[in-house]
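Reading a protein record of the kind used here takes only a little practice. To see the layout at work, look at the sequence and tokens printed below.
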Amino acid sequence: MTFDYKVADISLAEAGRHQIRLAEHEMPGLMTLRKEFGPTQPLKGARIAGSLHMTVQTAVLIETLTALGAEVRWASCNIFSTQDDAAAAVVVGNGTVEDPQGVPVFAWKGETLEEYWWTAQQILAWPGADTDPELGPNMILDDGGDATVLVHKGTEWEAAGVVPQAQEGDPE
């Protein structure tokens, strides 16, 4: 399986996996959901665009969503909160650094504002969705609201047929 992703350093995956295993012990609710509902795949067909702090705890959530059948693409909702080892571990998943088999993650600590908005766009840009909208996300899990705003403004701009130019007094 080949998929797109962008993290700071994929070689941090082993350290991240260790931290995720520790976090799993502190998150019994999610682990119980995996055990009880994993076999029935209640989230099969869910395509989740996630924008939440990319921490080891979020990694446990992401892997729970996929264990329950969801497809997921993820970005961090904050340019400073990403734990780079956790992001790398989620990308690698059950694969290797050379052959990642996990989840597409677009997050690294210290993103610029431009990079931040690029990552938000990536979670909404699912492979094949440009020709078949049914292949795009059908759920958004969004902590800060930025991915949701991007969807709404993008729809507004598409309807208008133009993306407005930034003005001198506009906030970043």
